[in-house]
Automatic annotation (TrEMBL):
The lineage of its organism: Bacteria, Bacillati, Actinomycetota, Actinomycetes, Kitasatosporales. Pfam families: 4HBT_3, Acyl_CoA_thio. SUPFAM superfamilies: Thioesterase/thiol ester dehydrase-isomerase. This is Acyl-CoA thioesterase 2. Signal peptide: none annotated. The keyword Lipid metabolism applies. Belongs to the C/M/P thioester hydrolase family. It catalyses: a fatty acyl-CoA + H2O = a fatty acid + CoA + H(+). One of its GO terms (molecular function) is fatty acyl-CoA hydrolase activity. Residues 164-284 form the Acyl-CoA thioesterase 2 C-terminal domain. Keywords: Hydrolase, Lipid metabolism. It comes from Streptomyces aurantiacus JA 4570. GO terms for biological process: acyl-CoA metabolic process; fatty acid catabolic process.
Length: 300
């Protein structure tokens, strides 16, 4: 595989080992646990592979139960809950080394003509993505060079991420900051024409920056972390067709953080301002002594 986008497509291409059982690779990474977006994306692939393929995913609801171990394969067991006239429901359990680490329920809907449509306009008028610096460029501008750890991560990153607001680096810069964040994203290369691949790739991406909104009023997003952070659950609603290798705007906000948990909501728009996907996630935050540099994809 030549590009990070190629590797992402390969990562989402599960091995079928029984009628309703699939096996996914888990790359050996330097992270302490498997990235949650990877598990969610692979589980959605497993669910989709047990359908006829003519009904797009319209929603998913998932729980992260245990941290997954990098480098160890994950087995996805699919339960065919319902095959109705308009809706198909699948429940997926992800197992690693005999323990359930994740479960997901996905619903697929036969496309139909709605009786009416409406959509609130986007909250922000974001500049064009090509006018914004990449994360690597912002880091280089601030530090003078890209640290080796971030250089390695940038080479593996399957998505181009560009923050609408410049990154904050100091306590003074985050003072009085609202719990909001927005990024432009797209896969760094073509993902092919299978709609399920694009849906699962965007599911992967949806976990990369969503909890940023919780952290923004508390600490700079890049630099030593003051918290152990993990995704607890994740829900998505898919409203319109899309391609994950075309620019999309991910507008994120956190309405509340309390009791060690922070809630984040995201809205994903295409470049024309059409709402494509709605996302909600809750994360766990526990303080620790700073010991490592921030990463672009939070562990789950």
């Amino acid at each position: 595989m030549n590009t990070p986008a190629d590797r992402l497509v390969d990562l989402l291409d599960l091995e079928q080992i029984e009628v309703n059982i699939f096996r996914g690779r888990s790359p050996q990474e330097s992270l302490q646990r498997v990235f949650g977006g990877q598990v969610a994306g692979q589980a959605l692939v497993a669910a989709g592979r047990t359908t006829e393929g003519d009904r797009p995913v319209h929603s998913l609801h998932a729980y992260f139960l245990r941290p997954g171990r990098p480098g160890v394969p994950i087995v996805y067991q699919v339960e065919r809950v319902r095959d109705g006239r308009s809706f198909t429901t699948r429940r997926v359990t992800a197992v690693q080394q005999g323990r359930t680490i994740f479960n997901l329920t996905a619903s697929f809907h036969q496309p139909e003509q709605g009786a009416f449509e409406h959509q609130l306009p986007p909250r922000i008028d974001a500049p064009a993505p090509e006018t914004l610096p990449t994360v690597a460029e912002e880091i280089k501008e601030h530090l003078g060079a890209l640290p080796e750890q971030w250089e390695r991560m940038a080479r593996r990153q399957p998505f181009d991420i560009r923050y609408v607001d410049r990154l904050r680096w100091t306590a003074e810069e985050i003072k009085d900051a609202e719990p909001r964040s927005a990024v432009w994203m797209r896969a760094v290369g073509p993902l092919g024409d299978d709609p399920l691949v694009h849906t699962c790739a965007l599911t992967y991406a949806s976990d990369m920056t969503l909890l940023d909104a919780v952290r923004i009023p508390v600490e700079p997003l890049w630099g030593p972390r003051g918290f152990d952070m993990a995704s607890l659950d994740h829900a998505m609603w898919f409203h319109r067709p899309f391609r994950a290798d075309e620019w999309f705007l991910y507008d994120q906000e956190s309405p509340i953080a309390t009791g060690g948990r922070g809630l984040a909501r995201g809205r994903i728009y295409d470049i024309e301002g059409r709402l494509l996907v709605s996302v909600v996630q809750e994360g766990l935050f526990r303080p620790h002594a700073p010991r490592h540099m921030g990463t672009p994809a939070p562990d789950a």
